[in-house]
Specification:
- By secondary structure, the protein is α/β, with parallel strands linked by helices.
- It folds into two domains: 28-114, Leucine Dehydrogenase, chain A, domain 1 (Rossmann fold), CATH 3.40.50.10860; 139-261, Rossmann fold (3-Layer(aba) Sandwich).
- The protein is 43% helix and 16% strand.
- The chain has ten helices and eleven strands.
- Helix 2 links the parallel strand 2 and strand 3.
- Bound molecules: NADPH dihydro-nicotinamide-adenine-dinucleotide phosphate.
- NADPH dihydro-nicotinamide-adenine-dinucleotide phosphate binds next to helix 10.
């Protein structure tokens, strides 16, 4: 039976140490600040934004929330970003995705100053990640790597199989695993022999968005299984992994909910604190 990698517990440990760091920064006259911008009324996005703002408050980060009407023009949104780029109280800017149709997401992301891009989606930060320079790493992939680290199992030389190749999860987590000296295979919707690929993995990272598609018979005995997927089925949240089957085979496994999800917000807080420190040359 697998050991659960408890994202909530790890998150609260990290948040506790961030809280102390924020206190120290505040005592020196520096308070990290995050601006969260949401456009339109997508209920899931609103929940995410609320959770992010609350998590900031909990550890003493200053936060501002901008709820903009779905009818806003791209030009107006870019003006808002410009304003936040030059606001010295704000060290991190997050634009909740997806944006309404008609707004060019990439143009909006590129407008955020790379130094305030705490989501790590700006092309400069993506490039820095690829070449191994210090930038901002996207939050979910950073959280995944932190969870694997905390198992105490080194990734060096291990075969990591990532299922999914999105710019926000699959690709960056693959690069991070490579930096940890893993041997990395990236699978996607055109992969022919997914079953065989996953079966070879010492570490499986599922980031697909298809409920329970990774079944127990695909998991090698003793593998570490990280489930990034968040899918709503009959009103309940389930991952991309069939948890009940996989926990019989895995050595470590993340639950959904309570696994990668809480880590994503924690990494956002960490990036915001880091952005404040970099601005102040700490
Ligand atoms: P995307 O839809 O952008 O990417 C999904 C990837 O899965 C694509 O690369 C796609 O391949 C691949 N894929 C789709 N179907 C198959 C298949 N049958 N076999 C193999 N690969 C397949 O999703 P995201 O990366 O944004 O998110 C993935 C999941 O993670 C979602 O459930 C999302 O909700 C969740 N998520 C969770 C977060 C958290 O905080 N826990 C944060 C972000 C996302 P192709 O490229 O060929 O289309």
């Amino acid at each position: 039976m697998a050991t659960i990698i408890d994202g909530k517990r790890i998150s609260s440990e990290i948040r506790e140490s961030l809280r102390k760091e924020v206190e120290l920064l505040k005592s020196q006259g520096m308070q990290p600040g995050l601006a969260v911008v949401i456009v339109g009324e997508d209920p899931a996005s609103q929940t995410y934004v609320r959770n992010k703002a609350k998590a900031c408050e909990d550890i003493g980060i200053y936060s501002e929330k901008y709820e903009l009407d779905a009818s806003i023009t791209q030009h107006q949104l870019l003006e808002k970003i410009d304003e936040l780029n030059s606001d010295s109280r704000i060290h991190g800017i997050l634009v909740q995705l997806p944006l309404p149709k008609g707004i060019d997401e990439q143009a909006v992301i590129e407008r955020i100053s790379a130094e305030k891009d705490v989501d790590g989606f700006h092309i400069l930060n993506a490039g820095k990640l690829l070449v191994g320079q210090k930038g901002f790493v996207p939050c979910t992939p950073a959280g995944v790597i932190e969870m694997i680290r905390r198992t105490g199992v080194s990734m060096a030389g291990k075969h990591v199989v990532v299922i999914g190749r999105s710019n926000i999860v699959g690709k960056p987590v693959s690069i991070l695993a490579l930096q940890e000296n893993a041997t990395v295979t990236i699978c996607h919707s055109k992969t022919n022999n997914l079953h065989e690929m996953v079966k070879m993995a010492d570490i499986v990272i599922a980031a697909v968005g298809r409920p329970q598609m990774i079944t127990g018979d695909m998991i090698k005995d003793g593998a570490i299984v990280i489930d990034v997927g968040i899918n709503r089925v009959d009103g309940k949240l389930v991952g991309d992994v069939n948890y009940k089957e996989a926990e019989e085979k895995a050595s470590f496994i993340t639950p959904v909910p309570g696994g990668v999800g809480p880590m994503t917000i924690t990494m956002l807080l960490q990036n915001t604190v880091e952005a404040c420190k970099r601005t102040n040359n700490i």
